[in-house]
Specification:
Mean pLDDT: 93
Structural class: mainly alpha
Strand content: under 5%
Radius of gyration: 23 Å
Number of helices: 4
Shape: elongated
Largest sheet: none
Distance between the termini: 52 Å
Helix content: over 70%
Order of helices and strands: HHHH
């Protein structure tokens, strides 16, 4: 039996409120800010803006984008 399987069995035996508290704790950990990921996205945004300003990317008007996904 793997650690994950054993943990699942233990969790299944917990009262419902304890399982809910555990889920909330896990979700909070997943939603925690990640400074390294934030830095990567900031670099990507800066690179995209620089490419736009340099005329290296083709832009598409918002109306065209919305029209593409509009349900008829």
């Amino acid at each position: 039996m793997t650690n994950t399987q054993a943990l699942r069995r233990q969790i299944a035996q917990l009262p419902a409120l304890d399982r809910i508290a555990l889920v909330e704790h896990i979700l909070q950990g997943l939603d925690a800010p990640d400074k390294s990921m934030d830095a990567l996205w900031a670099n990507e945004a800066e690179a995209r803006l620089a490419a736009y300003k340099a005329g290296q990317v083709k832009t598409i008007p918002l109306s065209e984008v919305l029209a593409k996904y509009r349900v008829s």
